[in-house]
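ARCHIVE RECORD
Type: protein–small molecule complex
Small molecule: FHN
Source of inputs: curated submission
Record status: active
Notes field left blank by submitter.
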Amino acid sequence: MSSQPEHQWFDEARIGMFVHFGAYSVAARHEWVQNYERLTAAEYLPYVENFDPDRFDAGEIARTAKRLGAGYVVLTTKHHEGFALWNSRQSDFTAHAVCGRDLVREHVDALRAEGLRVGLYFSLIDWHHPDFLIDWVHPRRDDDNAQELNAGRDMERYRAFMHAQLRELLTEYGQIDYMFFDFSYPEHKDGWDGKGPADWDSEAMLAMCRELQPNMLVNDRLGIPGDFYTPEQYQPTEPVRRGGELVRWEACQTINGSWGYHRDNLDQKSAPLLAQMLTDSVSMGGNMLLNIGPDGRGGISPRDRAVLETLGEWTELHRGAIVGAGYAEFEPPREGAYTRRGDRLYLHLATWPLGYVHLPGLAGKVTFTRLLHDGSWLRTSESDPNSEGSQMEAAGQPAGTLTVHLPVQRPDV
Ligand code: FHN
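STRUCTURE (tokenized, with ligand):
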């Protein structure tokens, strides 16, 4: 994990908010709707022409992120559809061309006004660009005449276009703290069909990032090593290590199963479940990037807002156990997870065990306290200083997500 001090904010923050917004939001059926429904460019055009983000309020999004407890917000500047949310001079397929607004400018200005770190998402895939090869993930892929469809397409021209757009984002919007590139195809082949690192000239893109934004964190989806690993919609089962060293990582999660606004709930997650996923990530030294998909007018959906507000109350109450906290080298009880901040150890129990919570290896003066919603501390029990481990009577306690704060005084802590 880079020890670059300019990257430490990311490890402190622990919570980020992802914002998937584009013309696909108007379709309201997932950001891959163009592909899933095999829409032609002409069939997709109405979503672009009717893109009118009158309820997109970057300040409201930034304040919502702050209430969530997030330290950074990541906006899709351009998703696979190719529709740019900034005033790009490389393309006329932009929000600015349609509605006269530069939403990336609004995003970065609002985050800075709220003291949040600036994150951008940039798609390596572009289904709109006339030179991007039609292939297995392209909406117009057609096995019979892919060759014919691709005649005349020049991916070298596309690569030059993509690098020019990236340069605009890295030079015209001030300090960018975080870049989420998305994505190199897993089975990289050399001949553009695989569209892997060599095809994007990922090394040149990374070098551009380092040159123009030397303190910016870059993810691993250029297909070459970056500054953090990006498990998507799953939780690692143990701290992520490479060569024995803990690796910086961030699990990105949706609230309802779709990144872009979807009118239906595909997989609605509750605030307690998201709190458990968050503590799970932090307990293994990772972050959670939680996504919202603003609707076709750019408004935060009532469904997302409700979950974010409840989760924000939890993270506010348990801030010390999350923000600035991380991996703890103690073996947690089966039902729980530890996070550690300095010499304070936090035990997170999503469900109360039937009997005692036995904390092996935590012998010594361990006082269990239970932080209640009103901030009062309820001393539930004290361990026997001479015992092998510490344990707490847990039977009969109400189930639910909470954090038990364990001030641990151990000589080696
Ligand atoms: O294809 C995208 C998807 O639409 C979404 O943006 C996620 C977010 O991490 N990334 C890609 C799938 O891995």
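CURATOR ANNOTATION: Confidence is low (pLDDT under 50) at residues 363-367, 369-381, 393-402, 409-413.
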